[in-house]
Write a structure and sequence with these properties.
The chain is mainly beta. 5% of the residues lie in helices and 26% in strands. The strands form two sheets. Strands 1-2-7-6-3-8 form a six-stranded antiparallel barrel. It has a two-stranded antiparallel ribbon with strand order 4-5. Strand 6 and strand 7 form a beta hairpin. It is globular. The structure holds S-adenosylmethionine.
Amino acid sequence: MENLVFHQIGVIKTPYTSSAPYQPVENDDQEFYLDVDDRYVQGLKDLDSFNYIYVIYYIDRLKDIPQMLVAPPWAYGRDVGVFASRSPGRPNPIGLSVVRIRKIFGNRVYTSGLDVFDGTPLLDIKPYIKDLDSKIDANHGWIEASDDAEHLALHIQGIPHDY
Ligand SMILES: C[S@@+](CC[C@H](N)C(=O)[O-])C[C@H]1O[C@@H](n2cnc3c(N)ncnc32)[C@H](O)[C@@H]1O
């Protein structure tokens, strides 16, 4: 297999330095933005016509070697294949988050809550397009089989809860 080279297009700015939600929390009212490198600013033209975007990034601060079976911290010790999970520890540590655009100002794309550490390298931005990206028969996969699927769903969505 070839080694491929990607170039960082910017930096993700978040309030999180050492821990972050497991998935984006849409109503988190802290400041989140994509600081896009000047070379790519023209590429933001018309992005503000969309409500939501995919943010694609390099999960750069992993410490452990990726495993093919992972036990998501909220899945009560259950092992699943890494490709059946959203675990950050994967052969190519690429993260994907869908967030709402709050505003775009110059090279900054302000968004709803993101689930990454401050300074995470930005690889790409793509529009989330109604109908193209919403599948009406999407399901919850192996998570549906859990005894406590509703509770797990809160963890998956990064929704704070106290039980
Ligand atoms: C479970 S991953 C999900 C990422 C993305 N939403 C996805 O589905 O691909 C989110 C977790 O990755 C970890 N994380 C975030 N940014 C990171 C970084 N730059 N380096 C290492 N780990 C990071 C945090 O522990 C956070 O809770």
